[in-house]
Amino acid sequence: MKTILIIGIGAGNPEHLTIQAVNALNRVDVFFIMDKGEAKGSMIDLRREICARFIAAGRTYRFATAQSPPWDRNSGEYNAVIGNLNSDKQAIFEQLIAGEMQDGETAGVLVWGDPSLYDSTIRIMTDIAASGRHAISYDVIPGISSLHALTAQHRTTLNTVGQPVEITTGRRLAEGFPAGTDSVFVMLDGDDTYRRFADDDRIDIYWGAYIGTADEILISGRLKDVAGQIAQTRAAAKQTHGWIMDSYLLRRRKS
Ligand SMILES: C[S@@+](CC[C@H](N)C(=O)[O-])C[C@H]1O[C@@H](n2cnc3c(N)ncnc32)[C@H](O)[C@@H]1O
């Protein structure tokens, strides 16, 4: 039997690692790394830094790196594109399991933020285990998500008293402000979708980019007042770094 540990590493600050995650790191023989290209090299650097910092001296471990499959989110219907991407990722994980670990060994997959939030690693491992092609067991170690990192950095709450929250993507937010909630957490928004609501005087925004890292940028205020500043800051940061990871909380006031 081979063991896979899906370990949440937090949203960019090595100090997000939980003690449970540190203990899990110290059980791993081989870390599977999906390389998403040069622009996102700093995300791989963080994974290596975490291993160097939290794995006990004298414990040996190795990295098995594979190129993340290429994809284009505009190449077809969104769910179909993501389905194909995940099939490609599953094939790569199966190659790593078959070729890069011995029976009885433990592999670690270091997942950004929390593995249950907008990440397919759990679904992929569930499918691999169910396929019967590999004798694996897998466990999930939770991590601090970008959602919790953002609310903490802005010193705000995710929800208002007794009210629900919606967690969604920029693509879905483009369909309108969700009904039945006053708080919407938005991830994976490459299109500045918050700007569509900039005329609504009752909405506040808490925005953050590269949260938890040395490059962190935070902006908050009345959406009407700060939407332009966020868009400009976002564009400039993307140009400087070559890529951006940002998310935001929209909160609609009663008056
Ligand atoms: C594929 S999802 C993964 C989410 C991750 N599993 C989590 O728990 O945060 C990637 C999105 O998470 C958000 N994100 C992740 N890390 C972030 C960070 N450090 N700062 C701002 N947003 C972040 C961005 O919206 C990004 O597009």
General form:
globular
Mean pLDDT: 94
Strand order of the largest sheet: 3-2-4-1-5
Query: Any idea what the radius of gyration is?
Result: 20 Å
SSE order: EHEHEHEHEHEHEEEHE
Count the strands? Answer: 10
Given the helix and strand composition, which structural class is it?
Answer: alpha/beta
**What is the architecture of the largest domain at the second tier of CATH?**
3-Layer(aba) Sandwich
Task: Count helical runs.
Answer: 7
Tell me, what is the CATH class of the largest domain? Alpha Beta
Distance between the termini: 59 Å
Bound molecules: S-adenosylmethionine
Helix-residue proportion: 25-40%
Task: Characterize the largest beta sheet: strand count, sense, and whether it forms a barrel.
Answer: 5 strands, parallel
Low-confidence stretches: none
For the record, the count of structural domains works out to: 2
Beta fraction of the residues?
A: 15-25%
As for the CATH topology of the largest domain, it is Cobalt-precorrin-4 Transmethylase, domain 1
Plain-language structure description:
Helix 3 (78-100) packs across helix 4 (121-131). The strands form two sheets. The chain has a five-stranded parallel β-sheet, sandwiched between helices. It folds into two domains: 2-144, Tetrapyrrole methylase, N-terminal domain (Cobalt-precorrin-4 Transmethylase, domain 1, 3-Layer(aba) Sandwich); 147-252, 2-Layer Sandwich (Methyltransferase, Cobalt-precorrin-4 Transmethylase, Domain 2). The model has no long low-confidence stretch (mean pLDDT 94). It has 255 residues and is an alpha/beta fold. The termini are far apart. Strand 6 (165-169), helix 6 and strand 7 (183-187) form a beta-alpha-beta unit. Helices cover 34% and strands 24% of the residues. Bound molecules: S-adenosylmethionine. S-adenosylmethionine (SAM) binds at residues 11-12, 112-114, 117-119, 145-146, 187-188, 208-212, 245-247.
